[in-house]
Amino acid sequence: MKKTLMTLLLLPLLLCLALPTQAAEKFKDFLFKGMPDYEIGAQTRNFEQLEIKSPKPESKNFVETTYEGNRVYSRYNYRGDETVRPSDLQVKRYFQSAVNKLGGEVLFESDSQLHASFKRNDKQYYMVVKAGGRSAIGYELWILELAELDYDVEIIDSDTILHKLDKEGHIALYINFDTGLATIKPESKDVIDEIVTALKSKPQLKVKLEGHTDNVGNAAANKKLSDDRANAVMNAISAKGIDKTRLSAEGFGLDKPIADNDSEAGRAKNRRVELVKMP
Known about the structure:
The protein has helices at residues 2-18, 22-26, 88-101, 158-167, 189-201, 219-238, 264-270, and strands at residues 38-55, 62-78, 105-109, 113-120, 123-132, 138-146, 170-173, 206-212, 247-251, 272-278. By secondary structure, it is an alpha+beta fold. It has two domains: 19-146, no CATH class; 158-278, CATH 3.30.1330.60. The strands form two sheets. Strands 1-2-6-5-4-3 form a six-stranded antiparallel β-sheet. A four-stranded mixed β-sheet has the order 7-10-8-9. A hairpin with a 3-residue loop joins strand 3 (105-109) and strand 4 (113-120). The radius of gyration is 26 Å and the shape is elongated.
């Protein structure tokens, strides 16, 4: 009886270990194919920093330089035979070989890490490989494409809002909210004031607030968040004296991007509230 009960308790765990996770299935190798018998357990893609060690001129020491750009982080877990699992040295040599084929350079090496630089398609890349990883049965890989963020920042005032609504029928507003919430941050109060000023100058104008998100996270949660944020802006406008019969709000989540979600700059453009002129 005890043996049967133990089997029933362990069965769900055994099934979880035997089946690949949905999260692992959606991740893809970036630039370099992963080592045999390894699969990606976690991955992030964003505009971030990466610290690279390189030789200090005329010294045995190293200097640390921080670079910014489009960074892809991947954590690989070993799924093969434990008796022949590659050593940390094998992991480092695998990626050193890849860098050498691209004409790149190894900048730093320790027992568990390899720092390198290389170029591909006229783009500069930096890479860090950490053998062992968090679980000690895999490795972690950071690859950064050197880049700068170039935001096309538009100064929003009531005249700009009215001009855009008249000529294009809508305007994208970048209102800052608390992370994951529909609470408008204090620095965005000026934008709300400009919307109110525009609407007060045109008493017959009716508008719809449309909320939009990037593609990070759950689609249903993004839809609700965008709806909540659109309503938060609508309520803030109404609270400053605009008749609510002139306003409506709706969230569209990640369904209507206006930029590429593969970069932080693109995702930032997609996280917006649009003011749309209504008949």
